[in-house]
Amino acid sequence: MFSHEYEHQQSSTAHHGFVLSHSSFPSDYSENINVTYTITGLSPRQQELQLTFFKFDVEVGTYYACTRDALYITGIQTTSASLAYCGNDKPPLGERMAYNITDFAVSFRFKSDHSINKEGFFFSYTGTCNVKQIPELLIKNLVFPVIC
What we know:
Mean pLDDT: 76
Number of helices: 0
Number of strands: 11
CATH architecture: Sandwich
Low-confidence stretches: 1-8, 133-146
Structural class: mainly beta
Order of helices and strands: EEEEEEEEEEE
Number of domains: 1
Radius of gyration: 18 Å
CATH superfamily: Spermadhesin, CUB domain
Largest sheet: 5 strands, mixed
Helix content: under 10%
């Protein structure tokens, strides 16, 4: 059996864009992928990250956990260190989800194992101003919104 490991890291300072699980999407992804995509230049106090998944098809893990192929998202506010999506725990498709940013970078890491390969995922992201957390600037009784 032929096995290879694919590792890739990519960074962007753009506050909007699209992320694919692998370069041959929508064909099935390869085994042993380890891809990280990082968005930098964010402001945890002023921005939130909006994600919209259009496709999510990865291998199911064992024992209702993301133990095989999974997408891990770090740098956003969750109840654990990272948010994990896999075949057992899929994100809703076509629905915009907003997360508070907790760091100056948000990373998306996709990892696959040596067995079952699927189509993968495709989603868009947008970093937007979190207007609830942005103070207004008061100068001589004039109010100016602070721009992210």
